[in-house]
## 1
Amino acid sequence: MTSTTDFANDIRLNGAVLLAQLQQLGNIGCDTDSGGRTRIALTDDEKAGRDQLVAWMRELDLDIGIDQIGNIFGTLLPATPEEKSLAPLMIGSHIDTVKNAGALDGCYGVLSGLAVVRAFREANKQPNRPITIAAFTNEEGVRYQPDMMGSLVCAGGLSIDTALQTIGTDGTRLGDELKRIGYAGDIAPTSVVPYEYLELHIEQGPILEAEAKQIGVVENLQGISWQKITIQGNANHAGTTPMRLRNDAGWAAASVMTFLRELAASSTNTLATVGSLKLAPDLINVIARSATFTVDLRDPDEQQLRSAERRLQAYLAVLEQQEGVKIVSKQLARFEPVIFNTRLVDEIETSAQRLGFSYRRMTSGAGHDAQMIARIAPAGMIFVPSRDGISHNPREHTDDEQLLNGAQVLLDVVLQRLEM
Ligand code: HGY
Ligand code: MN
Ligand code: MN
Ligand code: MN
């Protein structure tokens, strides 16, 4: 019976392959001018990324499954039938990106999961329970909302039928696109229930770098509220219409943005973002007939998030009266804050200590698939620093050494959780 240390000593991370695969995956859908890559969910470029991942899973001789929402699972099986029948230790994240993205968001967690199973393979060892690497569909949610959709369906938070019917911002139906790229699998998403779930991710924020910490031990994730707001006013001549007679949808949208900035400034942790704004008819000398924009509200405290939503709705009601416009808001996504499983959080902290890394406990500002899987299994997250705190941007970067630190902690936690 090998002790954990003997067993663990044989199992070593192959950092070179991990770094090479991050580079290779990062080249798929890459735009040479901006240096960013765009692999928006269910596009041809994302299919190319999926195909590459599946090829790497095949090289590791993993048991591959695709579920009905296109989540990709690669499993390293144990030796005995009893062990094979156990719920898997799952390591997951996503490989879809926003537009003009960095190479690490999501991909780092999935490929580090491959690195963990590669360490077993190269040491010719088998785990005592299945280890499943998951790449969840449409984590970013930029084309089809809500975001984190694949893991949400896996966690039973959205029915597969509703998900497949989703119409994207480009008018396409999610189910058709999934079929078109050849990833409409047959596994029932809710049939995949992990024993525990781990996600390694770049912080995508400035804290670890500012405090010169190597590892983030994530205790909780913020709540997220996404809305699409449409304001209908009256198009009119910019030169002949007195200011007091206008129903200006553009001005109304701008006043909501100012209101949101003041709301966030007056609260402890609430963040408010209007990331997309379209005016029509979008002409220099015509008062805007309509404005369509998105609102992204976040807060680690559910009551604060609800209060921000209520205050926004109250402001919109007053604005409708004052400006004589019609305002409709549609909820695109709504996730409550999540507190991670303390046993796993403690395990991650102990691993960081054992490996001699500086670390701090922290909240995740971004949403992650772990937020969904935490509904069905104990989940934990590990962060590594982001240079200048930048993400969702081609300048996203984490040093190789820091990337390997995170993967080391992931491997160590896996070995501890398997108690091999
Ligand atoms: O928006 C988010 O935080 C997630 O990455 N979709
Ligand atoms: Mn991500
Ligand atoms: Mn992201
Ligand atoms: Mn995310």
## 2
Amino acid sequence: MATERTLSIIKPDAVSKNVIGEIYTRFEKAGLKIVAAKMIHLSQEKAEGFYAEHKERPFFGALTGFMTSGPVMVQVLEGENAIAVNRDLMGATNPKEAEAGTIRADFAESIDANAAHGSDSAESAEREVAYFFGADEICPRG
Ligand code: RTP
Ligand code: MG
């Protein structure tokens, strides 16, 4: 197993519900370490760049509109198989299909307002971490 880094975003709905701490506890209990973090209110341009892979999809406008609707909490998680572990903690994209006990089952309302983002591959993780953090903003903790 490999130590990996993944990019996590607590989306505007979950920030608004005041559950950042509850979600951080889930990361920590799963063995993931927060090695970088910042709260930001995304501009339209920053949100569109982040989700550029979905540019042609019908939900792109709703997605970027939602992601700019309020502040988000962005973090880098580090640990064994961090990418898959974080995706498992999040649950399915549509909270109605998410397994009980996952972040989306517990905190999300809809496929649009679905509480959390996590990188879906090593390539995405590398791009997404660099999209938000410089090397000097990441603090590996061993
Ligand atoms: P995310 O990128 O936010 O972690 O979500 P994901 O990998 O589980 O899902 P993805 O396919 O990357 O889609 C990105 C976000 O777009 C919205 N979406 N809406 N209406 C739809 O069919 C639909 N499909 C995707 C979701 O909010 C999803 O999180
Ligand atoms: Mg995705």
